[in-house]
Amino acid sequence: MNQSILEVKGLKTSFFTDDGEVPAVDGVDFSVGEGEILGIVGESGCGKSVTSLSIMGLLPSPPGKIVGGSISFKGEDISHAKESRMRKLRGNDIAMIFQEPMTSLNPVFTIGDQLMEAIRLHNRLPKKELAARAAELLKMVGLPRAKELLKEYPHELSGGMRQRVMIAMAMSCNPKVLIADEPTTALDVTIQAQILDLMLKLNRETHTAIILITHDLGVVAQVCKRVVVMYAGKVVEEGDVKDIFNHPKHPYTEGLIRSIPDLHSKKDKLYTIKGSVPRPGSIEKGCLFAPRCEYVMDKCRTDSPELVGDSHKSRCFLHQVQE
Predict the structure, then answer these.
(1) Pick from 40, 77, 41, 37: nearest CA to 57
(2) SS3 string of 74-97?
(3) Which topology term describes how it sits in the membrane (predicted)?
(4) pTM
(5) Which listed CATH number (3.20.10.10, 3.40.50.300, 2.40.30.30, 3.40.1010.10) goes with 4-93+175-251?
(6) Which of 19, 34, 65, 243 could be disulfide-bonded to 2 (CB atoms 3.0-4.6 Å)?
């Protein structure tokens, strides 16, 4: 793997409410190499988005707070960096594409105003050059009529076009790391494919590392080299995409893969993982997946397994017994 540009070690993020501390992310470890595409997968409520907001320094505070671990960008610990430092890093070095472009774009400003603001914050360019750079970015992400689009408002664009604008905005300062939080969720299948192809193209041309956060394993198989599987705020499996798809070592990963509909076979009922993700902090001992696991053992209900392995890691006693 290329040299790590972003490293997350033992990250713990909690929300402090009237009912006490709620641990949303509990000891997450992973790293991203230069130019690598890393997938982070899991059901809603697994801590994927909270992890990304922690990296970006965008946690709502209060109630959110990083209570442990570190986030290192190019060797610098930014987990508790001052807001002034994070403003310089955001956009310029680490950028993020948010889940819903309609709520991420300001409805009362034109596309051009918002794109040029993102560029102007990090590059002091004359107004004419700003407009030319904004139009160039729109062309780069495959949008037609770039100059005309600069004068239009978000509601005048389709969902796919708005998502392309968000990607253009994120790429405006050539970041070293791009975090894409469910970038294709609200889009139809054809537009999804176009957005993923665009991200792969940008990765090849600009060598930007991408962290792709999704619940869609099909997307991960298509674009990622490595994948991190999260469950209830913890990493339960990590490794090469092909290894994990062909030989999953955690029952949760196995369940996610079995849940993918197979177009080549007819079934009366699709496979589902029974139950749901537990509320953060509700399970105080044992494996967090034990209440939903088909292979649960007595040990799983009392002891917490560690994440073990070399290139293919798993947090499961069953895997450790087999090894």
Answers:
(1) 77
(2) CCEECCCCCHHHHHHHECCCEEEE
(3) Peripheral membrane protein
(4) 0.89
(5) 3.40.50.300
(6) 34
